[in-house]
Amino acid sequence: MACACLALATTTITLPSLAGDIVYSTISVSPDDPGWYNEAGSTSTIVGGFDGTQNSLAASGTGKNQFYITGATLFGGSALTIGDIASIDYSTKKSGAGGSPDWFIQIYTDPYVGSPGSEWYGNRIQAEPYLASNIDAPADEWNGWTTDSGVNSLNWGDSSEGDYGANIGGWDTLTSSSVLGGSGTYGEAGVLFFSFGTGSLWAPGFDGEIGPITVTFNNGTGTVIEFAASTPVPGPAGLAGLVGLAVVGRRRRR
Fold it and tell me: Are 39 and 195 in contact (CB under 8 A)?
């Protein structure tokens, strides 16, 4: 199943880092954009809660919400592999303690013959905050989650072969691990879709918030996914097919 890439509004900023200046492009997304899957017909809402200056996204509380963005869109139009990603960072706020369900990250890899996933993707890996290492995430506060080691360090699993947990481990372990059901390592796998969302079974009643998502690449660039009430550049009509992909790819438990 094929679809067009997202056409979203972007800006570019430069931020300092210990390794030099990293150039970040900002992609603004809205719940009205193509690429959202809204299980109960009621999407997440934009709220102005993150750090007092930036918008956050509040879950609808009525069903699973999930957004899909292509790897190429995330990487400035170029093909993206998991190994190209240096780090992923985002923050969430919820009424439950750190060990309760939260906004998660999923990555769908490029399809290949005989994949355990589906005809349209190869493997589906995910990181859920409540399965992170060294959790320090008080309720009703903004808490950061990261692929870096240390506090709230995300762990990964491959749900295309039934691992809905985090049995692979941290980011460095993931990128060097052999692909389940395929060949090569996860680091070599192409990113078909980068996704964030809420789970299927626990989403009703969940109205937790997620702030901007920062994806930093090994080439000295990065992309920040931020939230806007509306985006000035709409995605192509063909991207409505992403809703179908989301139905096929939605999580089967929790």
Answer: no
